[in-house]
Amino acid sequence: MSEEILINVTPPETRxxxxxxxxxxxxxxxxxRQRGLVGNIYKGEVCRVLPGMQAVFVDIGLERAAxxxxxxxxxxxxxxxxxxxxxxxLHEGQHIVVQVAKDPIGTKGARLTMEISIPSRYQxxxxxxxxxxxxxxxxxxxxxxxxxxxxxxFQQEHGCGGFIARTAAECVEESVLQAxxxxxxxxxxxxxxxxxxxxxxxxxxxxxxxxxxxxxxxYKEGIEKIRVDSHETYLKLIRFAEEFVPSIVGMIEYYAGxxxxxxxxxxxxxxxxxxxxxxxxxxxxHLVFDQTEAMTTVDVNTGGYVGGxxxxxxxxxxxxxxxxxxxxxxxxxxxxxxxxxxxxxxQSPSHKQQVLQAFEKNLEKDHAKTKIxxxxxxxxxxxxxxxxxxxxxxxxxxxxxxxxxxxxxxxPETVCLEIFREIIRVVRQFNVQQLLVLASNxxxxxxxxxxxxxxxxxxxxLQIEIKFRAESQYNQEQYxxxxx
Length: 484
Known about the structure:
Mean pLDDT: 89
Largest sheet: 6 strands, antiparallel
Number of strands: 24
Low-confidence stretches: none
């Protein structure tokens, strides 16, 4: 499998695309004015304690107060007091050091944690933790034991916090790992010096920009090229790689071609497709994605696919293809939270198990943590995917002002009937002889055409004159009844 990472840089935004076998699998967008906050460390002030929720709101200088649950307190503090009540740990006006775990999403403020963690290429340093760990993605037990022994030996020698070996640490020499841990300790020392000096509600530490985080977090074994179309960013990546990941310096490539980098791999087209509800499958079937405040639902349909020896075989093949497509779309759209997948009903337990296994296998490539349930009696699969930033749709789009985000509009007929009811209400409430109705072109046309007979009857019944004016700026549901 060939894999590449593309980095498109412009002054307003940075976009990163992960390409596998020529197909876009993941897309990350960071805009200059709306940089993500995950990983940033702040000195905040507790502004409200909620004992009923076992949580507090913390003012860290953002537009909305951030949220901190008792489960996100520092484990060291929890062990000392061993109390289930948040008010035993925090009080209003208290100054605390917190880290953003989830960006503000929709109307919700940022999610915070007091269990600070600072990532590098090979490890994550947790200054308040006592134990060391190894990424679950490293499955070879002897290698896990080697890494754990290396981390624990360093921890005991320096009397510092705990470390977690990341997936990239697999088979890396101990000298390289120790140099990485030394860097993390120096970085934490610089952060602790700032804590006492910065004012409350201010930023202490800011995570790296997206382009450099790409080298730190997305690079893995098997990636052949990292292409960037900005020479300035290219030089920054080279300097970072030379210091922290010398082995990948030769893979970083500056792209200076006339044709846009994303156009070569059809990334722009894939972005447009990822904003559609419907995703077509090669077999003729299709998926339908619906993203709501509470959850995301995915519906699998056979569509025009009639292949296979029988109906059960057709359904099974469609579900198998859907399992692969859904795993890709979850990464590409960055859908998180609760996700309900409605696979086509299968009678065979063997088929259900194979589809579930195929889905789990395709999700193994996902950087976000996922949890999947068994196929229910209704053919539904419930899963969760860790959400730390906004979905692609929320970054690139806004709710439709015409429909208010519902995705549908009232028909012109419905609006006409509403106008009739409003006219009757106004005439009964006020003494008027003439009315002017302002509405969209579609509604006015219907009022003067299909509804003309009913309109004449209404004028005769109410004994008033009704005039109409089409307003090009009005959407289909908008209208006003003006009195004369």
